[in-house]
Amino acid sequence: MIAPGAFGTYSKKRGPLVVQGGRLSIWFFVGLMLTIYGVMILAAGLYGLAYPPNVKLASLHADLWWGAILLAGGLVYLRAFNPSKMGPPEA
Q1: Which of 34-38, 43-47, 68-72, 84-88 has the lowest mean pLDDT?
Q2: Which DSSP letter does residue 37 get?
Q3: What per-residue string of b and e applies to 24-50 under the rule 16 or more CB within 10 Å gives b?
Q4: Could you read off the pLDDT of 2-58 as tens digits, one per residue?
Q5: Among 49, 47, 46, 42, which Cα is nearest to 69's?
Q6: What angle, rounded to 10 degrees, do the helices at 62-80 and 26-50 form?
Q7: Which residues are 10's β-sheet partners?
């Protein structure tokens, strides 16, 4: 379990959370994947607006909402765990 307030810092108990010796945090890649999936699903939703599918509940535009949520979550993770914003590790 990650201690509260430990995001973006180095934890003495569990080790570095973002960067240690050139390694990147897994959360940065999770954010990257969420962003990519969000863009793809959002693009499919925009395509569905132009060419509506012949299915029930298409008027809810679930793909647009889900794509936007994934994209927003991915961007938050990318910003929070961006390795360029981290300082050098504590000695």
Answers
A1: 84-88
A2: H
A3: ebebbeebeebbebbeebbeebeebee
A4: 544 445 555 555 555 555 566 788 999 999 999 999 999 999 999 999 998 899 888
A5: 42
A6: 150
A7: 16
